[in-house]
Design a protein that fits this description.
seven-stranded antiparallel sheet; alpha+beta; 7 strands; about 20% helix; about 50% strand; S-adenosylmethionine decarboxylase; about 140 residues
Length: about 140
């Protein structure tokens, strides 16, 4: 089965609240996550909400990475979608969890762009709601 891309839907819990509301720190982390995935960043857009929270996207040559944060609950919702054999969206996901100091990560992996029949494409869920407890590092 040949897929054009891999999409990781990532739920991070127990994150550092101060980081989740710092738009510059979140943008820097997401750009570095793209590099960790061996992707090529093209542009980015991030916004800080009042009184708290950040949403943003890093557009990469191979697709995109996005984040939405809820500092009041220590939660970040993230998408890591990369195309091509040279990228690793799992590396971006794990990097983000480490930097945000998440205590728990729940992920779903979707393989996208699978040719179902001539000229028609579909996706399959390859890992559904995998949960990992993470140790916080100082």
């Amino acid at each position: 089965m040949k897929a054009l891309g891999t999409h990781i839907v990532c739920e991070l819990s127990g994150c550092n609240a101060a980081m989740l509301t710092d738009v510059d720190a979140v943008a820097e982390m997401m750009e570095q996550a793209a590099l960790e995935a061996n992707a090529t960043p093209i542009t980015k857009a991030f916004h800080r909400f009042q009184p708290q929270g950040v949403s943003g996207v890093v557009v990469i040559q191979e697709s995109h990475l996005s984040i939405h944060t809820w500092p009041e609950t220590g939660y970040a919702a993230m998408d890591f979608y990369t195309c091509g054999d040279h990228t690793d969206p799992w590396a971006a996901c794990e990097y983000a969890a480490k930097i945000l100091r998440a205590t728990n990560m729940r992920t779903t992996e979707v393989k996208r762009g699978i040719e179902a029949s001539r000229g028609q494409f579909t996706h399959i869920v390859t890992t559904d709601a995998e949960e990992r407890s993470l140790e916080r590092t100082a």
